[in-house]
Design goal:
Strand content of chain A: under 5%
Helix content of chain B: over 70%
Order of helices and strands of chain A: HHHHHHHHHHHHH
Low-confidence stretches of chain B: none
Mean pLDDT of chain A: 90
Number of domains of chain B: 1
Order of helices and strands of chain B: HHHHHHHHHHHH
Largest sheet of chain B: none
Number of strands of chain B: 0
Distance between the termini of chain A: 21 Å
CATH topology of chain B: MetI-like fold
Oligomer: heterodimer
Largest interface: A-B, 91 and 98 residues
Structural class of chain A: mainly alpha
CATH superfamily of chain B: MetI-like
Distance between the termini of chain B: 28 Å
Largest sheet of chain A: none
Structural class of chain B: mainly alpha
Radius of gyration of chain A: 23 Å
Chain lengths: 280, 261
């Protein structure tokens, strides 16, 4: 029941609610609707999931790249968070800056930097050739390797933030006590630090996985049009091939996959860890 | 008592990861100052010719100006709507407002490609394709989550009894907002504004779908540049962007530190 004295507070929520409904939820609801109505009403578009080879190939490619990217990002992010969590407060500030600056730098700038480095006449190939290590330029970009390098670079900061938050909750006296009792570095890590940091690791995994699933810019620029992931494939269907039914079907599948992943893991992970203190 | 320190291996590998994050970004600085006409490291001397090219190009300048205008207006929308919403949700704190807050986070969770495709069709019906207003609305709405998150975090540290005391002494809702709540959460609002601004300033996917000729933002021009001609002017633009974003980020960190004190 809405109490009378609460009306004013509800009015504060109203502008955001109306904007969000009219200009966010409505366009997305339309995407879901089109996937069932065009070109003909029914489940025809979804049938392609089981019959169309190109649809299946793009899903498998996307899942493969997502799993690889998530695994590597978690590994690298964990190493970094571990170092940051155990650093002195003054050093922590610098390390965190090293994570936050890449996080907020335009994804386009980063893709551009990778192209500069990795293309055929790029800096990496030129250096390797001039030192005589290779005679032919290596194929480092515009393929799956390039995508993974660029995506991991984008995702490591996202992996660090939730992991670091959970590592900071670990009481340093526990580690000191274990050491005092004669435990070695590896034992302390395996028996105390790792188990206590697992919630953060899991939260980071969910976050990175759902972000990579629908990623558009980096795969499009570093994949060179040959390795297609779901987002670029959807763009292609809509803009170039005008196959609205197929494109919106895949968009719907993408949203459902993300929401299902979140629903499953919200039972295991505190979602506040994933989306920060103000999260739902 | 000695604090636990990471081992040599852990320290070394953390440095390697940090270099992997930072080095590729910093490589664009020397490349932007090359004396060559193509994308490369400087050979004989450092040169600022590519910066001159960018600042002398009406296309680049027009895109920068347009992106700036769009970011300012959409940030204003996101800040007003997001702040009021976060305050309302904080004060009411019910099941319903938890749902509202989850709704506000959707733009972060749902990939922008899905939204962009939907908007492409939706705006065609409203005659908002390739319009300044259309891009502003899209960026404003998708900027709301950043403001809601930062303002909610600021409110979590705010003593609700202050608000009750103000109301108890006869202050109206508007007076309470203006004199009691807003001054306390200003740093949170500013943080949200900075993130909403960067969000719009960098946004590409939506723009690729709903704008084509009249609205040609900076990210859109960079995108075309990377796909068509990789010239060193691109590196100059990239450096300017990095400097700008880092500046905003340092401003945010300074604000946070002041709030913490």
């Amino acid at each position: 029941m809405m109490r009378r004295q609460d009306v004013g507070w509800w009015l504060l929520i109203l502008p955001a609610f109306l904007l969000m409904t009219a200009f966010y939820v409505a366009p997305i609801a339309q995407v879901l609707a089109i996937s069932f109505t065009e070109p003909t009403p029914g489940l025809g578009n979804y049938e392609r999931l089981f019959t169309n080879e190109s649809v299946q190939r793009v899903i498998i490619t996307t899942l493969r790249i997502c799993v690889i990217t998530t695994t590597i990002s978690l590994l690298l992010g964990y190493v970094l968070s571990y170092r940051i969590a155990l650093a002195s407060p003054a050093a922590q500030r610098w390390w965190i800056l090293a994570v936050l600056v890449p996080l907020w730098i335009s994804v386009l700038v980063r893709a551009f930097a990778w192209v500069t480095l990795l293309r055929r006449q790029g800096l990496v190939n030129e250096t390797l050739m001039s030192t005589g290590l290779i005679t032919e330029p290596l194929q480092l970009v515009w393929n799956e390797f390039g995508i993974v390098v660029g995506m991991v670079h984008y995702m490591v900061p996202y992996a660090v933030l939730p992991m670091l938050a959970s590592m900071r909750e670990i009481d340093p006296r526990l580690l000191a006590a274990a050491r005092g009792l004669g435990a070695g570095r590896i034992t302390i890590f395996a028996k105390i630090f790792l188990p206590l940091s697992l919630p953060g690791l899991l939260a980071a995994g969910v976050l990175v996985f759902i972000f990579t699933l629908g990623f558009y810019i980096t795969p499009a620029l570093l994949g060179g049009g040959k390795t297609l992931m779901v987002a670029e494939w959807i763009g292609l269907q809509i803009l170039d091939l005008l196959r609205w039914g197929l494109g919106t079907m895949m968009a719907t599948v993408l949203v459902v996959a993300i929401l299902v992943t979140l629903a499953i893991f919200s039972r295991l992970v505190d979602m506040k860890r994933v989306f920060g203190g103000g999260g739902a | 008592m000695m604090s636990h320190q990471p081992g040599l291996f852990a320290r070394g590998s953390a440095w390697v990861v940090a270099l992997y994050l930072l080095l590729p970004i910093s490589i664009i600085l020397p490349v932007s100052m090359t004396d060559q006409r193509f994308l490369s490291l400087p050979r004989e001397a450092l040169s600022l010719q590519h910066y001159v090219t960018v600042f002398g190009s009406p296309e680049w300048l027009a895109s920068i100006w347009q992106s700036f205008q769009i970011a300012v207006v959409s940030t204003a929308i996101a800040v007003v709507a997001g702040t009021l919403c976060a305050i309302g949700c904080w004060r009411l704190a019910s099941r319903a407002t938890n749902l509202v807050r989850a709704l506000m986070l959707l733009p972060i969770i749902i990939p922008s490609i899905v939204y962009a495709v939907g908007l492409y069709r939706y705006f065609a019906g409203l005659d908002l394709l390739d319009r300044f207003m259309g891009v502003v609305l899209a960026h404003g709405v998708t900027g709301i989550p950043y403001v809601v998150i930062t303002v909610s975090t600021a409110l979590a540290a705010f003593d609700p009894r202050l608000e009750q005391a103000a109301r108890g002494m006869g202050a109206s809702l508007m007076q309470t907002l203006r004199w009691v709540i807003l001054p306390r959460i200003t740093p949170g609002i500013l943080s949200g504004a900075i993130f909403a601004f960067i969000h719009s300033w960098d946004e590409l996917v939506i723009v690729l779908f709903i704008a084509s000729r009249d609205v040609f933002t900076l990210p859109r021009r960079i995108w075309d540049g990377i796909n068509e001609n990789l010239d060193p002017a691109m590196a100059a633009v990239a450096v300017l962007l990095v400097v700008f974003t880092t500046g905003l980020l340092l401003l945010d960190l300074a604000l946070r530190r002041r709030r913490a004190e």
